[in-house]
Amino acid sequence: FEDSVRDSETDSLNGFLNAQLFPDLSASLNLNWSQSENPRDGTQSENYGWRLHTTARLTPQLDANAFYDYTTSNRDDEETDDDETSRYGLSLNFRPSDILSFYGSLNRNPDENETAFNGSAAWRMTPKLQASVNTSQALEQGDSESYSANLSWLVSSHFSVRSSAGYQVCLLYTSPSPRD
Fold this sequence. Notes:
The structure is a single chain. This protein is mainly beta. It has strands at residues 9-22, 25-37, 44-59, 62-75, 83-97, 100-109, 114-126, 129-138, 144-156, 159-170. Strands 1-2-3-4-5-6-7-8-9-10 form a ten-stranded antiparallel beta sheet, with no helix packed on it. The termini are far apart.
């Protein structure tokens, strides 16, 4: 409300379904819908989306996750086009021992022509000393990459020390301006 006038009104509905398909395979489905109206100018919008996510334990040391997201939104004004997006991805988590683990994920957004990779490795050197390295890469255009390393030391149950280092590269692409 602004000056006793309603700014917007929104109705929404959300649903979640989770299923254990097999002992080592589970799936979930999220559904979302919303409808908004602005009484001041009479514009309306409607959004709908869903996400399918699966998790599989391939071996006792290896888990795999896959997902697919879909969203669509539309407004009834003439200035805005309907927007429809989808994303999908796969990740693997490998833990060969209690002290070593690896993670990698690949995500794709075909609407934006973007593919991203994220990876990490963690090593528990002692019960009180742990190290990890991480990376993120924009693979489609090669315009972004980052690397980081962390070292954590649990000195006592009340005191810990953590050091981090990172490196990041981001390139901005601009389209050439037309010549007069």
